[in-house]
Amino acid sequence: MRLSYPADIRIVRVPCTGKVDLIHILRAFEKGADGVSVVGCMEGDCHYNSGNFRAKKRVAQAKKVLDTVGIGAERVQMYNLSSSEGPRFARFAEEMADRIRALGPNPVRAAVNQMEHQTGGGR
Amino acid sequence: MIVAEKKPMEEIIEEIKHFENILVLGCNECVTVCEAGGKKEVGVLASALRMFFLKQGRKMRIDERTLERQCDPEYLEEIRDVADGYDAVVSLACGVGVQFTAEHYPSLPVYPGVNTCFMGVTEARGMWTERCQGCGQCILAATGGICPVARCAKRLFNGPCGGSSDGKCEIGKDTVCAWQLIIDRLRALGRMEEYERIAPIKDWSTDRAGGPRKIVREDLAP
Known about the structure:
The complex is a heterodimer.
Chain A: H1 22-30, E1 36-40, H2 51-69, E2 76-80, H3 86-103, H4 107-119
Parallel strand pairs in A: 1-2
Helix pairs in contact in A: 1-2
Chain B: E1 2-6, H1 9-16, E2 21-27, H2 30-33, H3 39-55, E3 61-67, H4 73-76, H5 80-83, E4 88-91, H6 95-104, E5 110-112, E6 114-124, E7 127-132, H7 148-151, H8 178-188, H9 192-196
């Protein structure tokens, strides 16, 4: 198919979105990610029955935490598609990249950069 | 187990915002099982707090540690060598653990990270309900194994009262009438004659009414 999607996305493979825990999403932001999308199978189509529903709940938990800490809930998003839907994946990737670009960089990373700039320290 | 609930993060932030070096201290026992204060919750809280303060332009040290228990001295001793390096501890243990940690480290402020709720069971995934109030005089033998102290809103010993209808308590449609449960169970066990026995007045001196409680066992004391 040779589809293209934004190159600034890093894919982290998991056996099932049910493997994705709240801490994994938070660590991504702590390490400087600007946004996280969790891409799972269609609801009702999970090979393990409830993996994508668990992921959905954890994404909801992450949204809550991100709002509290001031990063913003809109930086994390759950998407559902079936494994054969390459074009749909590319569309989701573009949608997420557009959204994050509009939001700007991760405010935590921005604050750290500013602190280092003020103290004259490098990364 | 002792069932607890996570405190709102805003409340914890308010407690610790004046400190620089903080230890988030979890407990591997009850609060791990009820997913309020185990290693996982320690990781999530510490990560969120680090991000919150970094965004405020404050580079605080927020470390993570989880002890086997916070209600036994030997486990609390495990942080003896590092405790001096912190200005405050946020304990995700139950109220018992928070207090015992504070007792062991008198110069270290210890803040609670959870609200300790009750002694109960995991009734279903994500649902915990109360079963015991620790009254110190167990009467479960007479009530078919269902506790009217913990589960009857009025703590009746010769129930039910007039507020029981369709097996529910008058305080709410979600609350099962403990005495309905007791009668159903005694009937199922073929022990209804026990229901006819009037329960004597309970000695409440072993409950909180008698003040803070203590057990000393000479056979175990060193």
